[in-house]
UniProtKB/TrEMBL annotation:
Signal peptide: none annotated. It holds the Pfam family HD_3. It is an enzyme of class 3 (hydrolase). It comes from Dorea hominis. Homodimer. It comes from the Bacteria. It catalyses: a 2'-deoxyribonucleoside 5'-phosphate + H2O = a 2'-deoxyribonucleoside + phosphate. Its EC number is 3.1.3.89. InterPro entries: HD/PDEase_dom, HD_domain, YfbR/HDDC2. Its cofactor is Co(2+); Mn(2+). This is 5'-deoxynucleotidase. CDD domains: HDc.
Length: 204
């Protein structure tokens, strides 16, 4: 690969560090697209033994590239994303691909087209893990950062994608339980706080 083209592509990829997602980290700051991508790849590596029939290298490459269009478009939360947003991101992918030499361009587009088609088991695994990683991140963030609609979304998002394999279904159910536990803990905390305030009022 021509070194100047390589550096140009690296500059585009750097925008994934700058562009923020809706999710917050456990420390309370918004996460970047690059941080989501990093942990999605980690997720794929950790579960690869559950899918011995699959090409784990291809899975991890799709994870690496799955949000590259957002280097140009920025992130649009799933609950806000419309068809026009998907088309804009697709156009951005083809724009980015022009920077790459023929061999890398073909691989780049082939992987993203496979992911979009979602017909291979490898692509289906990426879609399921992608959604689960987002749910895990929300579970790790303060519940104060959740929007009202996310209480239901946390329980349902990615369930359909996880049905492609029993391992993924079990993983999704475990994450769902973590969500329920988090909501229950928040409710208990709110009740304790309310009771404490009432006690103080009674004392006064």
């Amino acid at each position: 690969m021509d070194q100047r083209s390589l550096l140009e592509f690296m500059t585009i990829a750097e925008k994934l560090k700058c562009n923020l997602r809706h999710s917050c980290t456990s420390s309370g700051r918004p996460e970047s697209v690059a941080e989501h991508t990093f942990r999605l790849i980690m997720f794929a590596w950790l579960v690869e033994d559950a899918f011995p029939e699959c090409d784990s290298d291809r899975v991890m490459k799709m994870c690496l590239l799955h949000d590259m269009g957002e280097a140009v478009t920025g992130d649009v939360p799933a609950f806000e994303k419309k068809e026009e947003d998907r088309m804009t991101e697709k156009d951005a992918i083809y724009q980015i691909a022009e920077v790459l030499p023929d061999k890398k361009r073909k691989e780049f587009l082939m992987l993203l087209e496979e992911l979009e088609a979602s017909e291979t088991m490898e692509a289906k695994i990426v879609h399921a893990l992608d959604k689960m990683e987002a749910i895990i991140q929300h579970n790790e963030a303060s519940i104060d950062t959740w929007l009202p609609l996310e209480y239901d979304l946390q329980l349902t998002y990615g369930q359909e994608q996880a049905k492609v394999h029993p391992y993924l279904e079990r993983m999704r159910e475990l994450i769902r339980q973590d969500t329920l536990d988090k909501i229950d803990a928040a409710v208990d905390e709110a009740l304790d706080e309310q009771m404490g305030l009432q006690d103080k009022k009674g004392f006064l």
